[in-house]
Design brief:
This protein has helices at residues 22-28, 82-104, and strands at residues 2-6, 12-17, 39-40, 52-56, 61-65. A hairpin with a 4-residue loop joins strand 4 and strand 5 (61-65). It is built from two helices and five strands; from the N terminus they run E-E-H-E-E-E-H. It has a three-stranded antiparallel beta sheet with strand order 2-1-3, with no helix packed on it. Strands 4-5 form a two-stranded antiparallel ribbon. 29% of the residues lie in helices and 22% in strands. It is an alpha+beta fold. The protein starts with a strand and ends with a helix. It is elongated, with a radius of gyration of 31 Å.
Length: 105
């Protein structure tokens, strides 16, 4: 028996093979299956993987359009040149030397 899983928002996740309930099956004389949490035995409708997603509303499946993915923000351009970085490193080094001189006085 197949169950169809969904997330906290009801969005379809995938199929799950259910385990047989041995106690209830033996008691009733026919196969019964355990239904996992956040799943249903009702199969979702056909949908377009690229643009749609099935959503479980607690009673039935509906198909919703996937939201458009936002455009990635462009990477900020670094305006520092190699010379700028070298000068910053030299300034940091000089500052440390000055601090060292002050502490040894």
């Amino acid at each position: 028996m197949i169950a169809y899983s969904y997330d906290n928002n009801g969005h379809y996740i995938g199929e799950y093979t259910c385990q047989r309930d041995p106690i209830k099956s033996k008691k009733k004389g026919e196969n019964y299956y355990l239904l996992p949490a956040d799943a249903t035995f009702e199969k979702p409708p056909e949908y377009d993987l690229e643009t749609e997603i099935p959503v479980w509303n607690g009673e039935t499946w509906t198909v919703e359009m996937l939201p458009d993915e936002p455009e990635p923000e462009p990477e900020p351009e670094l305006s520092l040149s190699v010379e700028d970085i070298t000068l910053d490193m030299l300034a940091d080094h000089e500052e440390r030397l000055c601090m060292l001189e002050l502490t040894t006085l």
